[in-house]
Give the backbone structure.
Amino acid sequence: MPTNESTLLRDTAERAVRYRAALPSAHVTPLASPATLRAALGGPMPEYPQDGAAVVQRLADSVEAGGLMAMGSGRFFGFVIGGALPEALAADWLVSTWDQNTGLFAPSPGTAVVEEVAGQWIIEMLGLPDTSSFAFVTGGQMANTTALAAARHHMLATVGWDVEADGLTGAPPLRLVVGDEVHVTVPRAARLLGLGARAMQRVAVDANGAMRPDALRDVLAVAPGQPTIVCCQAGNVNTGALDPVGELADVAHAHGAWLHVDGAIGLWTAARRPSGLSGLERADSWSTDAHKWLNVPYDCGITICRHTAAHRAAMTVTAAYLVQAAPGTDRDPVDWNPEFSRRARAVPVYAALATLGRTGVVELVDRCCAHARLFAERLSAEPHIAVLNDVVLNQVLVRFTAPDGSASDGDARTRAVIAAVQQDGTCWLGGSVWRGQAVMRISVSNHATTVADVERSVEAIVRCARRLA
Ligand SMILES: Cc1ncc(COP(=O)(O)O)c(C=O)c1O
């Protein structure tokens, strides 16, 4: 039976509105078993066409019956996952509705211009060099990979090697230097770019996990003159620590190295005035995620690069059948992105930035940081609960010890509390390991989180911990 398109789209929009409206009171943890989900969704691939409206309804009913984590809830504190601002979500619906392939300017000038404007707004808001190039990619992983590809091009070009043309076989050695607390996506980028994860050199960090400039100086002094990329970070995935970017830029540049800042989490703090990320603008490239703290729906990461020629050389592609802009005229995203065909993922970013304004971005970031501090204050006031990190951003690391005072079973106890909280469903948070100790990891990244959500979550965590006593 042919699907009535308007009815299907209206019904689906209404379902989406109901889903969002239920989030504030939702049980955060998924309740359905994998077997239930497979039974509801699986079976043989249909041989013949089905009723489309019924397909969408059954699909949504099956997934929504306990198969979703309420990641958009104000009481979801797992990983580093933002919610979706309503305006960004609405704009994201338009992206799918318009269904534009935004690899080139000419076929989709409207979305290409949205991307131009959103990229320029971000550069301006974060106080980065206004001639920088940018790319809207799928997330922090690809943002780091794209920036490091530009860095690889630039650093090898300084010693007369064209890596895009000649590859890495026989190339002069290129060194990648990272902090001890580097995020796993950087070694993965090193693997993809042929730099080798094991070949990365590591720099010591301070007690909260931020890279130490003196230690970087020592590492770089070992092979002066070798083409080198240094990768630091704004926002440690465990502690939230922000590396001293300006100082690191000075050390890196004194050695002729390229400094990349992985700011997947913390780059948005540069919207503050003053930014608190002193000297950020002196780096060579930056990456961040809009689907984290800017609260746009998945997926969207951003690469920004001071060296536009290197960025373009690492990414550009041409073909006779493409409709490409003449140099210096319109901006073809395909020149800056690793993807070829792509979604117009800057559209929700535009909506978020235009709705919030710079001060709204700062308020969002500050509010989440204040919630993180409230978590830390409340939890550390409880007996047998300790906060292990200096809460400088939106991340809190919590450790649970036994009421009899023995610290020896802290790992087991911490993991048991995390499991109990996840089971309880009032809120959701995950675990990690910090300095060899198991920790509960709380990340406040959602615009929807309120003080009441924090208080209710603290109460649930404490209740679960006491129950295990
Ligand atoms: C510091 C850092 N870099 C990169 C990433 C990867 O980002 P994505 O998951 O968007 O690829 C993360 C994810 O948490 C991160 O915390």
